[in-house]
Amino acid sequence: MKQPIIIDTDPGIDDAAAISFALNHPEFDLKMISTVNGNVGIEKTTANALKLKRFFNSDIPVHRGASQPLLSDIVDASDVHGESGMEGYTFPEINESDLDSTHAVEAMRDVLLKSETPITLIPIGPLTNIALLLLTYPEVKTFIKEIVLMGGSASRGNVTPLAEFNIYCDPEAAQIVFNSGLPLTMIGLDVARSSSLTHDTINELNSINDTGKMLHQLFKHYRGDDFEKGINVYDAYTLLYLLHPEHFDVREADVQIETDGKLTKGASVVDFKSQFPNTTVVMSVQANIFKQMFIDALKYCK
């Protein structure tokens, strides 16, 4: 049986890989894509989601979401992903008619309440839309199977010494989500730092299929952590985890988000000794297995 999912995203080069898998893998039933301000502004993240929709000739609805965090100032990662958010590949021209007019939060509520099967939410950007959904329509919780998110760190950060980018962008939203009472899986910097796609592997993608060519070009313009060693495709881990959870090492913990600290804003405080864990924290994956999982998922794309 296919896994029904919703992708909440801020494309983003690594988001492009995750969305490619979500749109094409036969084990996923993607209900909708919602966009959020994050790697770049909401106009660009939405345009990028529409570019991927057009690239794959998909009819999956795309809904624009929050244009700014709940309380924090806007930050972006255009220095990592390029000015457009997906630099390096020339996508087909987008059509504004491909964008659904319903706001992402309203659309998620409608999809969830109409679903006969609980749906997994996969936020791979800041958690603004998800927090707004849970605050505004708490009745949807019954229809959410789990939240598998990309964000956080049990060790060091990447945008500050302690904070990971997605959480730092909207720590107040993250704190709401981590205390929602829903089953949560946090796929953060720890698993990303346990493996990466080497530059040789990135070059291999170019000969697999059209999607591999597209990702190859994007990754060549990606300037994430440890770029000299390889590419950390953070967001793709969420989909690969759902496909192959047996290959990932996990630990249970209580995770809280620092919202007040002057030097620690956005830190994910992970307590593995808590008697009341609220999150499954994904810690690592074997590097050689990760490469094969990534390529196997890619082969389902055009």
From TrEMBL:
UniProt keyword Hydrolase present: yes
InterPro entries: Inosine/uridine_hydrolase_dom, IUNH, Ribo_hydro-like
Domain named Inosine/uridine-preferring nucleoside hydrolase: residues: 5-291
SUPFAM superfamilies for the chain: Nucleoside hydrolase (SSF53590)
Keywords associated with the record: Glycosidase, Hydrolase
Name of this protein: Ribonucleoside hydrolase RihC
Record keyword Hydrolase present: yes
Top EC group: hydrolase
Lineage per the UniProt record: Bacteria, Bacillati, Bacillota, Bacilli, Bacillales
GO MF, one annotated term: hydrolase activity, acting on glycosyl bonds
Enzyme Commission number(s): 3.2.2.-
